[in-house]
Write a structure and sequence with these properties.
Length: about 600
């Protein structure tokens, strides 16, 4: 295929600025989908994405477009997530492109994740085309939005495209601008095959479907290929593109984006970022891979039924195929038996992984209280990376405990600046700098990760009446006063609720956990004592009174089916309970603990 007729581009933006709606409109306009089959969030094929109204996975699709110059162009479009927890998805996608559409909501203007994605695209040497979306809304101040884009990001006003993805305004002009503005791919079709893997997914019939971008050479079914980093060889069985459903093709040539299958069913044999070359005529050097992301939040994931452990292992390995930012290793808990200690990029990422494991693989899971990873410097000057509170060494062996800090950038209206500053300082933030970005303030704080992950974004939205936004990046480790907080149920430590907290917050968090557990643990046939312990002493305590329940007490004689119905109803209720020692703790208690 003629490379000059190919355009590879991603759509990037802050969350809720209209990326998926714009992708829908481009598909509709190009005829990739007809009106009868059209639905909103067309490329978001997970139920979870539709329910939450967010994009979680990047999606690739091929469009055909006949331009005004009479030529037939091929567009490879990749729609990406906007939430900061899924930045890695954006980064993976940008490597498959020469350009990016940077979408800005006309009413919101440039926000923190807009700036973060802009710099991600710059780092990947992409041509960036600014697009102002939602120009159809009442009182849209297009001139102010243009001014902000020019001042904050340095774009030329003549390149800014105006569209309404919802109403279809400006889409024809945007297509023409993409043809003129975004460069065609480079590369040599006669050179040895060089293709890199930018995503994968598991299919029960075809095995692992590998998303590739051909940088040099070409590939066809039947060719023997080698994964250069894994040093494994396979034969290609099927090659295709997404339109948006998978369509087989004869082959993929230099500059194209598509997929291939090799009947690989073991997720350990392949990884995202690897380079594919031909065995018969290999390339000398692999392409640069992706940077390794460090997870920021850790928690234990256990099956409710111990017999599901192997199913959980297989599910996690399949899920990791298209989410390499999620890491795991086996661990054992006194309360739950065998499970995995998993690392995530944030709480939303953790919730999404949990829901996908439960829905897609039909697993019933318990998640322990999330912790951030601490660094322990021991008396003999050794360094321990601590991800599990139960592995904390004794106080006599510890020189210092260091906690991870983030560089947090908050974009806020000037009128809300004082409230944002107070909020950041209440979260133990260290002020770094502030500056004007058009008519708003950008405030930078260094804040402990443990203070940011739970509800900081929600609180910023609250104090700025929805106009504030945050972006963050890992800064490093700083010394801190940390205590281990344990929850004891009937004098037994329940390691699911164990966590490391700052000493100033230990009493507050212990009291909150005990109070919440007292509400949520149902009355048992015996008294339940709930205690919070920090640094070896009890800091909070509560009791759940005993009760007795005989569901068939009122059934005097009659048909036995009456009693059976009541017993079945009681049994259904007990299914919701998770067993810890002798005390039944409902799943809601674990979920509530995550939010404290």
């Amino acid at each position: 295929m003629d490379k000059s007729l190919i355009r590879n581009f991603s759509i990037i933006a802050h969350i809720d600025h209209g990326k998926s709606t714009l992708a829908d409109r481009l598909l509709l306009f190009s005829g990739a989908i007809d009106e009868r089959k059209f639905k909103n969030q067309l490329l978001d094929d997970m139920d979870l994405e539709r329910e939450r109204g967010i994009t979680i996975k990047a999606s690739a699709v091929r469009l055909d477009y006949k331009a005004d110059d009479g030529k037939n162009y091929v567009f490879n479009l990749i729609d990406t997530p906007g939430h900061v927890d899924f930045t890695y998805e954006v980064e993976k996608s940008l490597r498959a492109c020469e350009g990016a559409l940077l979408v800005v909501d006309v009413s919101q203007g440039v926000e923190s994740q807009t700036v973060a994605n802009y710099f991600l695209a710059i780092d990947n040497n992409l041509e960036i085309l600014p697009v102002i979306n939602k120009i159809d809304i009442v009182n849209a101040d297009i001139d102010l939005a243009k001014k902000e884009i020019v001042e904050a990001l340095g774009f030329k006003e003549k390149n800014i495209q105006l569209v309404s993805a919802k109403e279809g305004l400006g889409i024809k002009e945007l297509f023409e601008k993409i043809v003129d503005f975004i460069p065609p791919p480079e590369g040599d079709e006669a050179a040895p095959l060089q293709a890199f893997i930018f995503d994968m997914k598991y299919d029960i019939y075809k095995g692992i479907i590998i998303y590739v971008r051909i940088v040099n050479g070409s590939l066809q079914p039947g060719v023997r290929i080698r994964m250069m980093h894994m040093n494994k060889e396979f034969s290609i069985e099927e090659v295709g593109v997404f339109r948006p459903e998978a369509v087989k093709v004869q082959g993929l040539s230099c500059g194209e984006v598509g997929y291939l299958t090799c009947n690989i069913h073991d997720p350990q044999e392949i990884k995202v970022g690897d380079t594919i070359t031909a065995v018969a005529n290999p390339t000398a050097e692999p392409l640069p891979g992706y940077r390794q992301l460090k997870p920021l939040v850790f928690c234990g994931v256990y099956p409710v039924n111990a017999a599901d452990f192997m199913n959980l292992r297989q599910a996690i390995e399949k899920l990791r195929l298209n989410d390499p930012s999620f890491v795991h290793e086996p661990e054992t808990s006194e309360s739950f038996g065998h499970g995995f200690r998993c690392g995530f990029l944030g709480l939303l990422h953790m919730e999404v992984v949990q829901e996908r494991l439960q829905r897609e693989y039909d697993l019933n899971l318990i998640l322990t209280t999330p912790n951030v990873g601490y660094r322990i410097v021991t008396k003999d000057k050794g360094v321990i990376q601590l991800e599990n509170p139960s592995e904390l060494p004794g106080a006599g062996d510890i020189e210092t405990i260091e906690e991870p800090y983030l560089k947090v950038s908050i974009l806020t209206p000037v009128s809300s600046m004082d409230k944002v500053m107070e909020l950041a300082k209440a979260k133990r933030g260290i002020f770094q700098k502030s500056e004007f970005v058009s008519d708003r303030m950008r405030i930078v704080f260094d804040i402990p990760l443990s203070e940011v992950i739970v509800d900081f974004n929600d609180q910023v939205k609250s104090v700025t009446r929805g106009y504030g936004s945050i972006d963050y990046e890992f800064k490093g480790y700083m010394p801190a006063r940390i205590a281990k907080l344990d929850i004891l149920i009937n004098d037994k430590v329940c390691d699911a609720f164990s966590c490391l907290v700052h000493k100033d917050r230990a009493y507050e968090k212990g009291l909150a956990l005990v109070t919440k557990l007292k509400e949520l643990i149902p009355q048992q046939m015996f008294e339940v004592k709930i205690q919070a312990s920090a640094d070896g002493r009890i800091i909070s305590s509560a009791k759940v009174k005993a009760m007795g329940k005989n569901v068939t007490a009122k059934c005097y004689g009659g048909d036995i089916t009456r009693k059976r119905k009541l017993w079945e109803k009681q049994k259904e209720g007990k299914k919701k309970l998770k067993q810890i020692g002798n005390v039944e703790v409902p799943q809601e208690a674990f979920l509530a603990a995550l939010k404290i």
